Amino acid sequence: MSRYVLAIDQGTTSSRAMLFDRCGQPCGIAQQEIRQFYPQPGWVEHDALDIWQSQLTVARRVLAERCLSAADIVAVGIANQRETVVLWDRATGLPLAPAIVWQDRRTATHCNVLRSNGHAEAIRQRTGLVLDAYFSATKLQWLLDHVPGARTRAMRGELAAGTIDSWLIFKLSGTHLTDVSNASRTMLLNLHTLQWDEQLLSLFDIPRSLLAEIVSSSAVVGHTDPAWFGAAIPIAGIAGDQQAATFGQGCLHPGMAKNTYGTGCFMLMPTGATPVVSRHNLLATAGWTLGESGVESSQYLLEGSVFMAGAIVQWLRDGLGLISTSAQIESLAAEVPDAGGVVLVPAFTGLGAPHWDPYARGTIVGISRGTSKAHIARAALESIAYQNVDVLEAMQRDAGTPLREMRVDGGAASNDLLMQYQADMLAIPVLRPVVTETTALGAAYLAGLATGFWSSLEEVSAQWRLNRCFTPGMGADERQQRLYLWRRALERARGWIEQETFVAPKP
Question: What are the tens digits of pLDDT across the range 254-272?
Answer without folding.
Answer: 878 899 998 889 999 988 8
